[in-house]
Amino acid sequence: MHAGVIAVQGDVAEHAAAVRNAAAAHDAPAEVVAVRDAGLVPDCDVLLVPGGESTTISRLIRREGIAGEIREHVARGKPVLATCAGLIVCSRDANDDRVETLGVVDVAVDRNAFGRQKDSFETELPVAGLDDPFHAVFIRAPAIDEVGPEVETLASVDGRPVAVRDGPVVATAFHPELTADPRIHDLAFFPENEVVA
Q1: pLDDT the model gives residue 10
Q2: Which of 14, 84, 90, 185 is catalytic?
Q3: Looking at CB atoms within 10 Å, which of 21, 106, 136, 148 has the fewest?
C-alpha cells in the first residue's frame, strides 16, 4: 500500500507509524511518503491530512498545487484520514474566512471548539465500528456543528460529533496518531474489515 501524509505542516512521523502498523495487521506493508509538493498524491492509495494549523495547511496546499490533487483522490473513492486541523481543511465550512476548505467532507466545523491548549483533554471514546472505546487525545480540538445528510457520525462528545465518515473520508477532531492504537487508521483504510481491540 502506498500511503501519503500531507507534510506541508503538522504531524507526519506519528501518522506514518500508525498507518504502517494498521497495514501490517492486514499483511499489506505500507510505503509512506511525505507529501510536500504536487505530483505525489496521484500515486497514493491512501492519504492522511494531519493536524497542525488549519490556516497554514490550507494556504500551503493551495500554493503547492496539492489541494486539487486531494479533491481528485477523494473523487476517485480513495481513502483519506483527516485529523484535527485536517478535519477543518477537509470540511465544507470552517466558519473562518482564513481557511479555504477542500469541501470533501460535508460538515461545518467550529475551530477550537473545546478551548485553548490548556483545555486539551483525553477520554475513552466509543467509536462506531470499534469493539472497545478508543483513547482519544483532543488538543485545541474542533467540533462539528453541522453534518450533511450522507455523513455518518462515528463518535460524539457532549452531543457534538467528533468523528465522521463521508464516503471514502474518515475525519476526526482528535489525534489518533498520538496513541499506540492503530484502530482509527484501520477503520479509515480497511473499512471492509471488522475492527477489533
Answers
A1: 61
A2: 84
A3: 148
Kindly report, residue by residue over 116-128, the tens digit of the pLDDT: 666 689 999 999 9
84, 142 Cβ separation under 8 angstroms:
yes
| pTM of the predicted model over 0.70 | yes
Any idea which fold 2-189 has? Answer: Rossmann fold (3.40.50)
* Dihedrals phi, psi of 15, to nearest 5 degrees: -65, -40
On the question of pLDDT at 28 being above 60, the answer is yes
Residue 12 has pLDDT above 90, yes or no: no
The answer to whether the CB of 15 falls within 8 A of the CB of 46 is no
Residue 141: name the closest of 128, 125, 130, 165 by CA. 125
Catalytic entry in 15, 69, 90, 175:
175
Confidence of residue 197 (pLDDT cuts 50, 70, 90): very low
Answer yes or no: 135 catalytic: no
- For residue 75 the three cell numbers come to 473523487
Give the active site residue among 177, 185, 192, 194.
Answer: 177
- Give the H or E element holding residue 170: strand 169-172
Provide the residue ranges of all domains of the chain, joining segments of one domain with +.
2-189
Is residue 72 part of the annotated active site? The answer reads: no
Find, among 75, 13, 22, 78, the residue nearest to 47 by Cα.
78
Asked if 2 is an active-site residue, the reply is no
